[in-house]
Predict the structure.
Amino acid sequence: MATQASQVMEPHRGQWKTHWGFLLAAIGSAIGLGSIWRFAYVCYENGGGAYLIPYFVALVTAGVPLMILEYGLGHRMRGSAPMSFAKVSPRWEWLGWWMVIFVMFGIVLYYAVVIAWCVCYLWFSVTLAWGADPNTFFFQTFLGVTAGPHVIGDIRSPILLALIVVWAVNWLIVFFGVEQGIEKANKVFMPLLIGLILVLVAWNLTLPGAQEGMRKFLKPDFSKLSEPKVWIDAYSQIFFTLSLGFGIMVAYASYLPRKADINSDAWITSLVDTAVSILAGLAVFGTLGYMAGRQGKPFAEVVQHGIGLAFVAYPQAISLLPAFQKLFGVLFFLTLTVAGIASAISILEAFSAAVMDKFHYPRKAVVTVLSVLGFLGGIIFATGGGLAWLDIVDHSLSHYGLFIACILQCALVGWIYGAHRLREHVNAVSAKPVGRFLDFSIRYLVPAVLVYLLCSDLLKDIRQPYGDYPWLAIVLIGKDWLILTLIAALFVAMRPWRKPLKDT
Ligand code: PFF
């Protein structure tokens, strides 16, 4: 029986002390750099307030069902992604490993470097070190960008130092385990993060022109809804922002007690992440609106996306503030740092849990080794060629890797395990049941959407190499990263389990 099973506790596995602790940790994983700087720009570009329609459609039809799948599977199988998948079918264990390996030894390697940039900018805010030309400062002085991915250049020492700090913090939190480390940290991080964003929004409301920026961000343009790109962007944002396909939510849910309201938790996690993304968007666009007003430029000229927004446009706006510029800068980059670390620790935990489940190595040793490897692996992204590497690896993993992993995860649970069995389990433990739509979504809808996203990315990339990088770089860096992690996953999956898997 599924629900009895969940009472079986493996001695090496922790448990959340409170339900809140679990929710805050899951929300911490979801709210990340992507929610803060990506959501706002994508929303603005895709019809402002009207974009919320495809976004919510994607959330309801794909985001929440997949979140229920990941929570339900982890809770039912009491294991990290590889263990949970192996319990469904030993032949699929590799998929769990592949997920956690390409996220831990791919996405997090460069994600931690971007957090390290935020830590540096936190420091730079104290003196407004970017001066009058934040663009040159960021790309030349700070990153020392080289001619392309083939020219590695030198290691940027401020970034390297900050990277040590980032990994030391990740290590320290995960080292102490689920309850004493991750839960406690998120109980501080999440209120702090939401408080910081609220302060930034309130501050913005006092700036002339900021409300104009906020209006630009949310002003609906319904004509955009007929463009497929808007829907594609909404669905791809949902998977990344909710940390789906990372193996994280499976591991986090495996530490839940038997009675866990999985269905409501999936909704709460998704809606809080959305609310925080919208709030962060108001803060970001408010400041840009203020800057446009101060410089007498059209709004479209000051707005940038991704890293350009956080490290070029925003610093420029900070320098133009009428008062307390340094404090504003510190608050903004602290927000990004906290959001980033709460996400990074979630994958460090997801990977550590997988290794501990399989080999029963002690937590402290596993986390220490992984943190050192994570740091060492990240050094390549802290070089002059690092930005190009980051861009290529990110595109390859957070599009192709995550999409393929999510499709296979749906196939495994929807068809091999049986979507109805998963639904029966989550409904048995949740306060409110989910209907058969869950089965439809897992078996057909989410895989179909993901196959569509995958094909549209592939077609785009075939027509024009991503980011105009040389083909060789894309294949050698991006595709090889996927293939090498796949080989590593197959290798680990073939090793025997230290203790035979018990059917839960
Ligand atoms: N949900 C996170 C974000 O939006 O930034 C995605 C993430 C990235 C989670 C990296 C975990 C991670 F290590």
